[in-house]
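WARN retry 2 of 3 for item q-0093 after timeout on previous attempt; input resubmitted unchanged.
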Amino acid sequence: MPVSLTVGAGGVVQEVEGKTREYKENLSSPRKVLCALVAFANSAGGQLVVGVDDDRRVVGVDDPLAEEERLANLVADSIVPRLVPTIEIVTVEGRALLVARVALSGRRPHHVKAEGPDEGVYLRLGSTNRQADLPMIRELERTALGKTFDQLPAAGQTLDSLDMEALAGMLERPVDAETLRTLTLAAPQGDDDKLVPTNGGILLAGRRREELFPFTWVQCGRFRGDDKVDIFDQAEIHSHLPLAVDEAVAFLTKNAFKSAQFGEVRRKDVWSIPVDAIREIIINAVAHAAWGA
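OK item q-0093 returned
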């Protein structure tokens, strides 16, 4: 996609920096240039425009051919895995600019070589480049493979790690290897494609789930008053996560008040809390928690 710049009075570019665009006056700060290109490649792609100063004025590049070669060498030598941006020289307001275009990379996460794979990964957040932490780096690796965390094989686990009886009860159907594969609760691994549980399978029905994911349990508490200091009932729930939802709801209803409404034909129980809505909140919390972070 060609660069589109609207220049107003005083040679000021009207388009501001954002998620897919950054301006640099020159290449005097190579690290910032590299961070921007890495962030574009890891996020949603973008354009780095060289020859526009901090006030968005078009100042141009003095020796565009030499600077083009310098930028190409800088990228080739300093970004891992290798990144190949499209670099062009464009003319705006009679001045030469360098434009480096980067697409979202299928080889992400890219990193700045000098900073290493754990410290040199950057993401684009608005108009800024932010260092990615290790959980985000792992997420980038998974998305590049087209797999989510729960679809990946669980480390060091075998099918014996799954509570098949409990799983069959939760699914209300017999469970065999094909069922596990279809539901992505197990996946082939290794040269022999041996079927092993996925992270999702362990989270759903792992016999020793908390050994692999120590924080996968639910804590409930009821406090006296509004300051959350005086707790007078609590529960720690370590059941399989789908069953933990039911136990959490049971804790809520145990601590709620129930009244009755009488109609013409039948009685209707009315809870002092919106049980159905809270159940949905608990399900969403369990389903979307970052258990592997």
